[in-house]
Amino acid sequence: MFRIARQNPSASLLVRAQEDPRAYAAFYDAYSDRILAFLARRVFDPEVAVDLMSETFAKVLERRMQFRGESAAEEQGWLFAIARTELSHYWRSGRVERAALERFAVNVPELDGDEFERIEALAGLNSLDGPLLDAVAALPPDQRRAIELRIVEDLAYEEMAAVLAVSEQVARARVSRALRALARMLRDGVTAKDAAA
């Protein structure tokens, strides 16, 4: 009777992907939500977080043969180091580099309302407290109102657009701009008093 060998849970999925590129899908599935949440908590913008996550995984795919670890903990550390590097590049340049995405012909899908909500929930972007409330108070009125409707009142973008008497695209843009501004203020430690000065 044959026994099916079970995979060691501490074994690296990335090591398997070095020999079999199809195994990369299991690696992606294991870590994509965690990387997405990690990035969304730092940029406060679901679309930018998805772009950064896509670039991170494209870089990992491209560099998988350079990985020298053997355990899941080592692959996780390596993956998050690449994600932090991509985030650092984003903060310095203000945009997501798409070189690896283009080399692999990866298309980053447009996010729909449900996906925006899933990422916001995954990253815990739905709660406002402490320094974040001060940063919200420092936003321009149109962006502050958009954040209040989207996050505090938990309205869908379609409902927000109706309340604001603007298109859904404009409502999304206001939320996106506000989230980027909040991320900058929180990263730089700017208070409402500083922003008003």
Can you tell me about this structure?
- This protein is mostly helical.
- The protein folds into two domains: 13-103, Rna Polymerase Sigma Factor, Chain: A, CATH 1.10.1740; 127-196, Winged helix-like DNA-binding domain superfamily/Winged helix DNA-binding domain (Arc Repressor Mutant, subunit A, Orthogonal Bundle).
- It has helices spanning 13-19, 24-43, 46-63, 72-93, 99-103, 113-123, 131-137, 141-152, 157-164, 168-188, 192-196.
- The N and C termini lie far apart (77 Å).
Write a concise synopsis of the structure shown:
With 197 residues, this protein is mainly α. The chain has eleven helices and no strands. It has helices at residues 13-19, 24-43, 46-63, 72-93, 99-103, 113-123, 131-137, 141-152, 157-164, 168-188, 192-196.
